[in-house]
Amino acid sequence: MAASQKIFAGARIRRIRNEKGLSQTAMAEGLGISPSYLNLIERNQRPLTVQLLLKLASVYRINPEELQGENATSLAELKEVFADPLLAGEMPGMHELAETVEASPNAALALVKLYRAYREQAERLSDLSQMLASEGRATAVTAKRLPVDEVRGALERRPYHFPAIEDEAESFLKLLDVKEGLLPALKDWLLREQGISVRVLPAATMPNWRRRYDRHSQRLFISERLSPADQLREIAMETALIRMQVAIDRGVADLKLSTDEARRLARFEMARYAALALMMPYQAFLTQAGRAKHDVAVLASRFSVSFEQAATRLVTLARPGASAIPFFLVEIDHAGNRLRRIGAEGFPHDRFGGACPKLSHHACFAEPGRVLVEAAEMPDGGLFATIARTVDGPATAYHERPRRTAILLGCDLEHTDKLAYRPSLLVSKDVAALPIGPACRLCERTGCLSRAEPPLTRPIGLDEAVTGFSAYDFQ
Asked: Can you give the residue ranges of the HTH cro/C1-type domain (predicted)?
């Protein structure tokens, strides 16, 4: 132990003393210190010295490592418990959490186990509710959610198309001179109409922000870590927040959110939507999407946008009388967390699910940048075309781990003839579609090598004489 390192382990010393049935006087005598000094140690007003650690090890046969530092794992787990929206406003300070772990480690672990059981039951109820809803039986199962979850849920349930924003974007574009491109047109408008200049700053100057508007100097700063397409989107977002406030507010109102924080988050979502509407004008993009047979990479090149931006814009093409294929999109990170689920008709939970581990966007991380195209078949026979690819985040320094997510763009397989990906989607008696399910808890496919959880609808198989290839056998 370094000379400068201080170890405060009062609660543990007190627990050891109580377990051995010793008074402070008796333990102090065994350690060769005064009872008052031991009292200060137990109240964490004095640290343990190297000599005391060695004395504790020899007299009471205690491993010194047990006294060095707090139980970081239990502390992190307890912090996760109190971060749940169910306990909003009850979050104790880190010092109080540390004291709880130190003084009552068994109680802290019991609380963590109880919380995990609660989360498990909540997930089971959610899956069961989804299953019943797909069968046409509505449920009243609800749960308190974070504002970000409320916004995501609202976007999943409705078509990802906001007419007021589309109309305002088209009107605004008519006022701009975009002959030299949208970027110089937006910069010129910001400077001429708002007195705002745009500057791209180096990463060292703005290490933590993509975009920052300084109201005092009337300057909009953009990070150099962003790709040209992402830099344009940030400038378009700031412009939309200034010029398209009424349309953005209408889009937020359409989501019918319950809290101010959720509505603020939704404003950012609407601003991103407005930026895409400016970067890829509706009618022009719809026309080019048909000509390119919805080839995302081709569309990204034609409009000088990213693959992700072009894929997202395809989902928005749901204007009555001028719509495209009803695409849907899901985005995940490398750990499988779902970040976005949107659809031209709402995300198709009941028909597609989107949580099957066999879907190609999970495989994308092994082949970054490659477009994976597959036909997928649901247990009820529903067929879907899926197009997946990884998406890279901002540029990183050599010591940083890059952010990489994966998107999956999908639609009913009946639209195959309108897709440039048709050769990879043909299904025949000799070429089968990939068998998938809505989610492991709701899927009854047997022998699935990718199964992560047993289904809710079947009892687990407990035959000791038979073991299947799936991680969970069921009857």
From this structure: 13-67
